[in-house]
Amino acid sequence: MTIVSLPGSSGYLDVSNRKVVSYFSNPYVLGLTFVAGIGGLLFGYDTGVISGALLYIKDEFPEVNQSSFLQETIVSMALVGAMIGAAAGGWINDSYGRKRATLSADVVFILGSLVMAAALDPYILILGRLLVGLGVGVASVTAPVYIAEASPSEIRGGLVSTNVLMITGGQFLSYLVNLAFTEIPGTWRWMLGVAGVPAAIQFVLMLFLPESPRWLYMKKDKAEAVAVLAKIYDPYRLEEEIDQLATALEEERLRKQAVSYLDVFRKKEIRLAFFAGAGLQAFQQFAGINTVMYYSPTIVQMAGFKSNQLALLLSLIVALTNAMGTIVGIYLIDHFGRKKLALTSLSGVIVSLILLAVAFILESSTSNSINVGAYGWIAVIGLALYIAFFAPGMGPVPWTVNSEIYPESYRGMCGGMSATVNWISNLIVAQSFLSLAEAVGAGATFLILAGIAVMAFVFVVVFVPETKGLSFEEMERIWKEKAWGSGSGKDALLEARS
Fold first, then answer.
1. 328, HSE (Cβ side, Cα atoms, 13 Å)
2. Mean per-residue pLDDT of the chain
3. Are 211 and 149 in contact, with CB atoms under 8 Å apart?
4. Which of 87, 310, 336, 338 is most exposed by smallest CB count within 10 Å?
5. What is the pLDDT of residue 157?
6. What are the C-alpha distances in Å from 415 to residues 38, 99, 275, 284, 451?
7. E-strand spans in 378-482?
């Protein structure tokens, strides 16, 4: 093979034998991606379905209708479960593998769906939400890592973003289901209960898929790992990947001790990577995305549209915009780059949140019904614009970056910790949005979110490196370089990627 180093490129390139890799070039990898991505579908469905179901839960349980706290708890209990599931998910992934983690998440999710559908009071419903959250939390850690470890570096961003497409697709599906069951007795029970169907489908399909090849090589069976890698790479590239894995395994042996959670904070290069990854996850939530997705029907009603069905229909349009924007992101993330895409996305998010804030402030200050209707439509347009800007960038970028920036021995652990940060942030936003909107008004609430989005923009500029096209090993060198300075003679490459 002829291997050359290209300054300012993604590192080393086999110019004589390496085939051009595209998103659709390997059906096997694409199949792995979509089956693993059903975990993202579960994540998205649960996020979206509760927003519509809540409208009918309030009709059946008067105590829920009379208490914003109970409404927020029904939404947020799934996030508590997801927080716990994500925290445990990193350990499960590292100890038992990505495949077993996925199967266990499916079982818990199915159980939670059945409990929700059969709930006789709000408190049993809350228990079901907790169980579903546990499954979603484990899946949110597992799916991006499984996909990233089975992906060629050239298209890793697009493939991991497919998991985010499944999330947004799940949200869109949830609104379709919500509309489909609006006239059927037991409306919200059907909405929540059918969530178990995709989990059951993933469980069956996952039984026929392999474990992550990188996990197999590092933890279990090198021969089996090579057999899986041979289905992903051509023979020349396969040799290169095996060499990189052998080097990584040797480094693991030289450490002579198991990694711990404290090491994430003790080792400067891991600490810097985790700070960047966890910061992205936190800002994804504090910029308001799941406020929009959880409460979009409620926001639409706050904007003056009082019909439950009309609110759900308009929210369906928002969810469709989210899914379409993610498809755009799949293309852009490997061509435009993670960092540039996030910054462009945040710029649009800031403008959209300001538009939303202005619409609600003007709506609350007028009694003219014609003006109220106009401001309501401005709010709906603001919601759609928010999603159109958020979905291609800040939707997939945090998950993609977190699936690729950590060394092998820390990937599950740090991925779980950063996902936990995402769910904690999600919980804070979901638990506080309605109360905050009641206290200071919806307009002021969206202005606060716009201010947070400005902070997110600055954070990405300062702390997040560009990771487009880099191998896992190249990214590990970036963090060592940032932590300890140059000395390897690769400064130009490292600086070009940051």
1. 17
2. 83
3. no
4. 310
5. 87
6. 18, 16, 12, 15, 27
7. none
Rounded distance between C-alpha atoms, residue 142 and residue 137, angstroms: 9
3-state secondary structure of 126: helix
pLDDT at 151: 87
Q: What angle do CA 288, 292, 295 make, to 5 degrees?
A: 125
Nearest to 295 by CA among 383, 394, 185: 383
What single-letter DSSP state applies at residue 151? S
Residue with tokens 């852009």: 332
User: Does domain 24-209 sit in CATH 3.30.230.70?
Assistant: no
Provide the pLDDT confidence category of residue 380 given band limits of 50, 70 and 90: confident
The ranges assigned to domains in the chain are: 24-209, 263-486
> Same topology for domains 24-209 and 263-486, yes or no?
yes
Residues 202-218, mean pLDDT to the nearest whole number: 91
pLDDT band, residue 177 (cuts 50/70/90):
confident
- Rounded to whole angstroms, the Cα distance separating 188 from 100 reads 31
pLDDT value of residue 186: 76
Superfamily in which the 263-486 domain is placed by CATH? MFS general substrate transporter like domains (1.20.1250.20)
pLDDT exceeds cutoff 70 at 486: no
* Tokens (6 digits) for 194: 């059918």
What does the alpha-carbon distance between residue 113 and residue 68 come to, in Å, rounded to a whole number? 23
Nearest CA to 196 out of 297, 51, 49 is that of: 49
